[in-house]
Amino acid sequence: MIIVLKPGCTPEQVKDFTNTLTNEYSIKVNTWVGTQSTVLGLIGDTSAIDIDYISAQDFVESVKRVQEPYKKSNRKFHPDDTVITLPDGQKIGGGGLALIAGPCSVESKEQICDIARRVKAAGAQFLRGGAFKPRTSPYAFQGLKAEGLELLKEAKKETGLPIVTEIMSANHIDMFLENGVDIIQVGARNMQNFDLLKELGKVKTPILLKRGLSSTIEELLMSAEYILAGGNEQVILCERGIRTYETYTRNTLDISAIPILKKLSHLPVVVDPSHAGGIAWLVEPLALAAVAAGADGLIIEVHNNPAKALSDGAQSLTPDQFDKAAEHLRAAAKAFGRNVE
């Protein structure tokens, strides 16, 4: 249930009303104070609450029941967009276009530092790189693991770019935090690893949550709900393509998911055109389409020598290709009124 209070409602009235609701009913009340009004989100069994009684309060503007199972990620509970702001001031959401770029896998100090320098020069604000790699084949390169995190930290120290990297297990959370990971990525295969999501709900680090290979939009939002319900409100949704009947591309980028997610949820939406298409020459057109559809950011794979990459070389751009793509993406973003430097 959502209760919208009138603009003139005082903090004391909000507090007293909230206490009355929690004392009389077995519910939890989330309070969101916006620029125009205050919204109370009632979570739990609200069937016994009399809407007419609530509406009769002189400081209540409107009351409505929410049918969707996701509450904290629901825009009805949180009308304004959530903006993820890192300590260094970098943002995802809020009208800009965040560029996250780097290799699929961290392979060496020279490789990750060289790519970090190049993508930063091209305009990327974040460095992506896999230290732990989930692979379909048990014989494929699985990443450098802890050493990979150390190398990412070296690249961050040299360039100042915040780190985005994927976590595989809740047992690795402390290791990620100790190594200064700025945004923890949950991969598509772990989108419904609910034990992991619960643990990530206990940290304050932003979480980039990728949509599962065959998951619905509601299932993605419900996975985000696990993190939000744990107390971590810094969640970024990521559309990375879903499995369809088409075999030409690695996955099918669901462009429609971007405006739908923006309508249903207040959380920022990032798009991964690299994993969606699986082909390097498809990355830029898919990224441009994502910008036009309203994505808050892009996460793009860049490798200094894709032909010899230890993973996902076919979909990786070279630094020179990323230079051109980033220029075109910024131009497109400006054309659509985005705040791009």
UniProtKB/TrEMBL annotation:
The keyword Transferase applies. It is an enzyme of class 2 (transferase). Gene3D superfamilies: Aldolase class I, Phospho-2-dehydro-3-deoxyheptonate aldolase, domain 1. Residues 84-329 form the DAHP synthetase I/KDSA domain. The keyword Lipid metabolism does not apply. GO terms for biological process: aromatic amino acid family biosynthetic process. Its EC number is 2.5.1.54. It comes from the Bacteria. GO terms for molecular function: 3-deoxy-7-phosphoheptulonate synthase activity; aldehyde-lyase activity. Residues 1-68 form the DAHP synthase ferredoxin-like domain. Pfam families: DAHP_snth_FXD, DAHP_synth_1. Keywords: Transferase. PANTHER family: PHOSPHO-2-DEHYDRO-3-DEOXYHEPTONATE ALDOLASE. This is Phospho-2-dehydro-3-deoxyheptonate aldolase. It comes from Caproiciproducens galactitolivorans.
